[in-house]
Amino acid sequence: MPERRGLRVGQWIGLAVTAVLLVGLLILPKFQSQYDLLTYTRFLVLALMAQGWNLIGGYTGYAAFGNVGFFGLGAYTTGLLMLSKLQVPFFPALFCGALLAGLIAALIGLPVLRLKGHYFAIATLGVAEAFRQIADTWDSLTQGSTGIDLPVRTEGEFFYYSALAFVVLGVLVTIALRRSKIGYAWVAIRGDQDAARMLGINTTAMKVLAFAFSAMFAAIAGGLTAYQNIHVTPGDFFKIEYTLQMIIATIIGGTGTILGPVLGAGVYQLLSNYVWTRFLELHPTVLGLIIILFIIFLPRGLMPVLTGSIEVARGRRRFRLQALLANVRAHRVT
Amino acid sequence: MNPTEFGQIAVNAVLLSGILALVALGFSLVWGIMNIVNLSHGAFVVLGAYLTFFLHELVGLDPFVTIPIVMFALFLLGFGVQQVLINQVIRAPLLATFLLTFGLEILIVNLVNYFFKADLRSVTTRYTGTGMSLGPLRIPYIRLAALGISLLLVAVTAAFLKSTRQGRAIRATGMDIDAARLTGVKVAQIYALTFAIGASLAGGAGSLLSMIVPFDPNLGETYTQRAFVICVLGGLGDVGNVILGAILYAFVDVFVGARLPELSQAFTFGVLVLLLVLRPQGIAGKKLYA
Amino acid sequence: MEAPAVAQSAEALLQARSVTKHFGGVAALQGVDLEIRRGEILGVIGPNGAGKTTFVNCISGMDKPTSGTILFKGVDITHMPGYAIGRLGLARTFQVVKPLRQLNVIDNVAVGAMFGAGGSKRNTSQARARAEQVLEQVGLKHRSTHLAADLTLPDLKRLELAKALAMDPELLFLDEVMAGLNPTEVERAMQMLQTINSSGITLFVIEHVMKAIMGISDRIVVLHFGKKIAEGDPSKVIENPQVIEAYLGERFAKRARGERQKR
Fold it and tell me: How many angstroms separate the CA of residue A192 from the nearest CA in chain B?
């Protein structure tokens, strides 16, 4: 992640493209039906979750498999606060949800982040499952499996712009973190955790921070979705599908990149919609296949492909199919 | 809980542990030797169950007779999957194999769902429901046979690993892949063989399960989870550890399931996390391969 | 090549007392007493499995000793977490190099500059500036923007050293940095280590390359089966019959004697 004074031409191009897309996203609601707006909002919420996951799974290299737990936690916290005697307005309730998620993630992270690889992934999976079960059984608080109903609000634009604002905020936060010592610490941990420790990095603290951040992003996504959906149940809000979506979105877009999660969320949403309309019943099969293909052929996601194409377009680099396939060959066993 | 309840639960646990051991063994082999946590392991169990179901329904074969057929079919499938898919990401970072096997699981389960629909199935024969009584306790014959067959398969696998050349090559690869290569072991073949064996054992477990519980395409998920917990409980070292883990798990699962069914998963995972944090080697094992 | 003179009143920068480490039933270290004096180059030799790397792991906080005490600059670091020890001014390299693979060379080193002893007063750009200095020092500047994963072994070894140097350590543990280097590279490495030492950094050097150890060490310590079996002046240590039997062999001792007589 080299920092330079000023930007390279390639980065200017990237920035320009991003700006155009952002403007497009801003004026979008004028031209879309309420139904389509819903899809775009879903994309933005997914982007938010992916951005959060990118911090722990992408930059730090700890593949958490339970962030839907924080999604649901955010949903319930936001909802219950809004429904409580205090009748907390939406945004403050949302922030409370985020804070609570961050705190709980930090507490859980302390023991769980000591685990490596597979163990960590499964442990976080278990955490999400445990959250679901708790939401299901703690009737007095959450109304159990019947769920809760938030105050009604139907303007699609409100949710769209809120989600958009958070996604933009997420991008800015990601940039800030990545350029800071924290970002370096995360990438160092991913590179070689032992080396990172010996270089003076408090790996536990840094990991917990990444995990807490990812939880906050997920919680905000959860709160937004809760308000939009109105009806919140444990079954709906703790689905492992959400975890998978945010992971796949990040992978498609590019782990450890700033815009990768957003890009990936967009591509995923597009694919998902297309597959849904064409292959309704085989929808998961096709998605499973897409996952498999991406993992094998494009494990670094689309971002490197995009930045690479900018270079190719400028005549700087030649397009080589081998480069794509080299990836596959490198990971085989002979 | 009165003694009879307790006794029946204990009996159920013991009978269940056989199949759990079988499922976990395949899973632990792939994990221990190839360092791959195969999230689609449960899908192989499901395939085994459906295959037995259809061989029974369409061809009229006795389900016990279908077991070797199913195991062979799953062996081939496992071999193919490893060569075509798993092999591509073997040296890639963990997340890649995790997601790959997960994608595979989604794919298989959904295909099964599509072709066979989500109705609950069950393999019933004229001897379903028969059993013997040990005092107040009831021991269904099928479950007893399932226990016996599971243990037999586990023993055969253990013998294979210990005494045959291929088996020893597999273990060697798991211990030190470079050293194994140096002694002439063809690692690519060994990996394919190991994965195929894992799938085969899962298929066998599926066959047995089809006779014992009603199943649908989602049967597999819980078995993958259980296999994982068992491997953690027992450690990845050897077959004995897997059996130990399976028995322990079966008891905990059955007892917690009896008392706190709603929170069983939360409890299991709580214990799992605690265990992982306090004793990553598992209760018995030394982590030889992981 | 002469070893630089060491101040007679050298303070003990690091004191290891009765450091013991058990792995299950195996005693990797048995009551090792060691002192590292400020400003010196302490060479450490011994057969494989003698406990040299284990010792470094215990001191640097990578691992915890089963018993014993370790004082660094008077501070008890026995149970201190590894990263805190690093920030106190103790750095180490790994025998099997551990580069941060997906980062480029300068970022690898910048991490050390950011989080090491000098890190608290640097922001990320200042850390990169410091990294450039260190890369210049070890001769890797021309590879600044290359990915660590693309480096050759000698360059990786230099990177490993650079990362540790960037931490501004007072005490630097080097674990077989010269393994796999050809004679010319060994010479260059020896010079580099001497320069580093002259700049005020105390060195603890584990090596099998005897020429290097003899050439740069002020004192030598010999470990064998987790115990310290000899310590002191290099020329005396290599004459020690225990050391000869455990590690050096007669032929080497003769050769080394001969070489010293030539000087």
Answer: 13
Find the domain containing B46 and state its range. Answer: 14-119+135-221
Looking at residue B188, what is its pLDDT? 87
**B154: which 2 tokens?**
């586990």
Neighbors of chain B with 3 or more C-beta pairs under 8 Å: A
Closest C-alpha among C192, C175, C178, B109 to residue A240: B109
Tell me whether residue B283 is in a domain.
Answer: no
Taking CA atoms, what residue in C is nearest to A3? Answer: C125
Beta bridge partners of C29: C21
Residues B258-285 have a mean pLDDT of 65
Which of A305-314, B119-128, C103-112, C229-238 shows the lowest mean pLDDT across its residues?
A305-314
The shortest C-alpha distance from C67 to chain A (Å) reads: 21
What's the total number of domains in chain A?
1
Residue A271 lies in a domain: yes
| DSSP, res A118 | H
pLDDT tens for A22-75 read 888 888 877 878 888 888 999 999 999 999 999 999 999 898 989 999 999 999
Q: Min CA distance, B228 vs chain A (Å)? A: 8
A187 CB neighbours in chain C (<8 A) are: 100, 102-103, 107
Domain that holds residue C256: 233-263
Subunit contact A200:C86, Cβ cutoff 8 A = yes
The residue-averaged pLDDT of C104-116 equals 94
For chain C, what is the domain count?
A: 2
Tokens of C223: 């470990």
Structural domain contains residue B3: no
- Asked if the structure places residue C29 within a domain, the reply is yes
Nearest to C107 among A1, A200, A201 (CB): A1
Q: Write down the mean pLDDT value for chain B.
A: 84
Looking at the predicted structure, is the pLDDT value of residue C28 above 70? yes
Instruction: Provide the shortest C-alpha distance from residue B88 to chain A (in Å).
Output: 5
Please answer yes or no on whether B276 and A57 come within 8 Å at the CB atom: no
Whole-angstrom distance, CA of residue A69 vs CA of residue A125: 9
pTM: 0.86
pLDDT classification of C260: cutoffs 50, 70, 90:
low
Domain count, chain B: 1
Residues of B in Cβ contact (< 8 Å) with A62 = none
A-chain residues near C82 (CB < 8 A):
197-198
Alpha carbons A188 and A199: distance in angstroms, whole number: 9
Same domain for C91 and C196, yes or no, is yes
CATH of the domain at A233: 1.10.3470
CATH number of the CATH domain containing C192: 3.40.50.300
Any B CB within 8 A of A308 CB: no
The secondary structure of C124-177 as a DSSP string is: HHHHHHHHHHHHHHHT-GGGTTSBGGG--HHHHHHHHHHHHHTT--SEEEEEST
Contact B111 A282 (CB under 8 A): yes
Within a domain: A42: yes
ipTM: 0.88
Tally C-beta pairs within 8 A across A and B: 133
- 142-171 in C: which are within 8 Å (CB) of A? 145, 148, 163, 167
The tokens for B193 are: 């063989």
Residue B278 vs residue C7, higher pLDDT: B278
Q: pLDDT class for C258, splitting at 50, 70, 90? A: low
The answer to whether residues C218 and C239 belong to one domain is no
Residue A292: CB partners within 8 Å, gap ≥ 6?
B85, B100, B103, B104, B107
